[in-house]
Specification:
This protein is mostly helical. It has 15 helices and no strands.
Length: about 280
């Protein structure tokens, strides 16, 4: 079983998304030792990323790959376990893990900005060669510039989604039923969102504003989604139909879901302990 964190670290070098899910599953399988000593439990996770960084850390995008595994996966799960050990509330541990992803994603944008920009330009060059007419359109040129600006946030959103999948697996593995209505986050998180708004006023920080707002709004989006799911369950009992309805809402009405989650957090205050405990 202790080979699994090593494999998780190796997988995170190839795919941080899959690595996150795998290490969350491992953490749930060894929950007892993980809560007693999180650092001992997942220490093997960091072996391969650190080894790769030491051997080939000066070449190409190797530092980015290694840092994504170390800070975008390993540190996230470590903080998740530390928070869970401290207060035994799964939703608060999830929030702590999300905050680590947000902070790292923003730091990643500045530390590896050159590498990310080069990768984006290479991708756009390939698209331009294959679909030149498509990219000559003025609207598409504007869209591609916006995509380049928001690209760091989308990586973080993907990792938050991976953590959420791992969170579901964690629940199932430790045999605690997942109750959508229990997914409530502290009202103080809303203050972080409000604190990011002044960044829009300065030209130098607009990219930081856009990326931080996208990342931070994933939390009220998650809360709004599960609140809507809870209320929908009172009307629709079939999980397949509910899933289809919520998928459509997530695609076409994600902004209302964010506002619902934001408002619900204010109304429920710090009441995040709805039975969602380990």
């Amino acid at each position: 079983m202790f080979l699994l964190p090593f494999l998780s670290g190796t997988m995170s070098l190839l795919s941080p998304f899959l690595g996150m899910i795998l290490v969350m599953y491992f953490s749930a399988k060894v929950l007892g030792p993980a809560l007693v000593s999180p650092q001992r439990t997942i220490i093997l996770f960091f072996v391969m990323p650190i080894l790769v960084l030491m051997i080939d850390g000066r070449h190409g995008d190797t530092p980015l790959i290694a840092f994504d595994a170390i800070f975008g996966v390993g540190l996230v799960v470590y903080v998740f376990l530390l928070t869970l050990r401290r207060n035994q509330v799964l939703s608060e541990a999830l929030l702590a893990g999300i905050l680590v992803i947000v902070v790292y994603s923003l730091a990643r944008m500045y530390i590896f900005g050159g590498i990310l920009s080069n990768a984006y330009q290479e991708g756009m060059q390939i698209m331009k060669e294959q679909m030149p007419v498509f990219l000559d359109n003025e609207y598409m040129q504007f869209s591609t510039r916006m995509w380049e600006t928001m690209m760091p946030a989308f990586w973080g959103v993907g990792q938050i989604f991976a953590l959420l999948i791992g969170y579901f697996i964690f629940h199932r593995t430790i045999h605690i039923p997942f109750v959508p209505g229990d997914v409530k986050f502290t009202v103080f998180f809303n203050i972080l969102i409000l604190a990011a708004l002044p960044l829009y006023l300065f030209e130098a920080t607009k990219a930081l504003f856009i990326n931080s707002l996208i990342l931070l709004c994933t939390v009220p989006l998650i809360q709004g989604f599960f609140l809507a799911w809870t209320h929908l369950s009172r009307v629709v009992s079939n999980n397949i139909i509910k899933s289809i309805i919520m998928f459509v809402l997530l695609i076409y009405a994600f902004i209302p879901l964010i506002l619902i989650g934001f408002a619900d957090s204010w109304m429920t205050g710090n009441n995040t302990r709805g039975g969602n405990t380990a």
